[in-house]
Amino acid sequence: MRSPWRESRGRRAGWFGLILAVFVAHALFGMRVGSGLIGWNTSAHARRIDVTFAHKMQPATLPPAAPAPAAAAPRTAHAVRASSVSVPAASAPHPLETAALARSHAQLHERALALAAHGAESGPAAAAAAATVPAPAASVSRTTGISLVAGGGVSAPPPADSASQAIAGPERPAFEWPPSTRLAYTLTGERGAGRHIYGKAVVEWRREGSRYQVGFDIHISPLIDQHMYSEGRITENGLSPSHYDESFSVLFATPRNRRVEFGDTDVLLDNGQRVFKLEQTQDGASQFVQFVWMFYNNPEWLRPGFVVHIPLALPNNLRRWSYQVVGTERLDLAFGAIDAVHLKPLLDGPRRPNEYPFDIWTAPSLQYLPVQILVRVDEQTWALLSLDDLPFQAAGERPPPPPPRSNPFPPPPANGER
User: Which residue, 109, 121, 227, 282, could crosslink 287 as a Cys pair with Cβ 3.0–4.6 Å?
Assistant: First the structure.
């Protein structure tokens, strides 16, 4: 082959142009690989939490789930504090009670006992009034959310017998946040009629004391990359984001970046609008880990027909999103079959710009982590993310215990039998 230096001036210029193009392509590719690291090139003020994902998480063997009530009206679950909701005079019975309800119930019972003690002096009316007030339950179910009936009120405590059956015995073990965890997904789908897409996705949960970071990285071969990043604090009410940003890029185009900043009482959206912060508001990345906290503390929410609400701050709006529990499904994934609970989004109207509702399958035997996610862009465009291996977790961090049964005690004998 003849040396390019011996070529004519035009051919030498062509060679130099080719070398320069290769150099630029390698440089851009290196930047693209670097931006794929979760937390890199997204949040300028955050120090990435360093962890080593050392071992695979193994599914926990769970006892059979407690049967659902024979005839239960549709209920909805709001992850809000007790102090923010009013209690109606009459509601359908439900096994959950908050501490505030328990205290007020105990006060009513003490007043009833006082009436009964003076029943002889006050007549049979006082004794009858005392008899109508049930005794308070011995303990309150460990839950940080409140179950609301469809009309929007808190459900009233059940009768004494059923309440003691539902919440008697030792308390449910306190929730422990999962150790730093990495989940890898295979992405398949369609982009328009007959145009298949393939890619990879990674979700990383990193924690350090009360500080957390969540990254969600999606790559669709060979053109599209999307990064979502959330950071904040771990609180008694779940995750409390302080900052969220996302970027979307196509091939070598400049990424489109958007961000959301969280204050104590308000949220600054990417469009410059400042809105009121709802209780336990999450962002596009933290919501997946918040579901873990919600379902561990409230496993009874995962019954078919139940509706779960979560406030979500997106770059251009903040509102509650609703998900209905479809039921438990057996999924055949790359690492084997696993039972997961399917949650389907409930839309309150046409899809808004840059909003992509998703179905989620959460696996109780894998600490309620999402094992499958279906993202719908429109009727002809969708993407399915399926977990391609068991999650990897950090060494030296103690994982939470397997989720126990919500009601491990047998029902009392019928008709006084022993």
Answer: 282
End-to-end CA distance of the chain: 98
Question: Which residue type sits at 24?
Answer: V
**Angle formed by the axes of helices 124-131 and 99-117, nearest 10°:** 160
Single-letter amino acid code for the residue at 197:
I
Helix (H, G, I), strand (E, B) or coil at 81: coil
Residues pairing with 259 in the sheet: 245
**pTM of the full predicted structure?**
0.63
Contact 284/228 with Cβ under 8 angstroms? Answer: yes
Alpha-carbon distance values, 231 to 79, 207, 216, 368 (Å): 20, 10, 12, 21
Q: What is the pLDDT of residues 236-265, one digit of tens each?
A: 999 999 999 999 888 777 889 999 999 999
Other residues' Cβ atoms within 10 Å of the Cβ of residue 102: 18
Q: Are 242 and 256 in contact (CB under 8 A)?
A: no
* Alpha carbon distances (Å) from 379 to 113, 192, 223, 322, 375: 62, 9, 22, 20, 11
Q: Give the length of the chain.
A: 418
Residue 140: name the closest of 109, 169, 98 by CA.
Answer: 98
Task: State how far the alpha carbon of 21 is from the alpha carbons of 5, 27, 36, 41, 140, in Å.
Answer: 18, 10, 23, 24, 68
Helix, strand, coil % over all residues of the chain, rounded to 5 = 20, 35, 45
Token match 């390698």: residue?
Answer: 26
Residue 284 CA to residue 355 CA, distance in Å, equals 10
pLDDT in tens, 343-364: 999 987 666 666 778 999 999 9
Backbone angles phi, psi at 73, to 5 degrees: -70, 155
Q: Which of 271, 267, 273 lies closest to 242 in space, CA to CA?
A: 267
Distances, alpha carbon 305 to alpha carbons 71, 86, 146, 327, 375, in Å: 12, 24, 17, 8, 21
d(CA 95, CA 409): 14
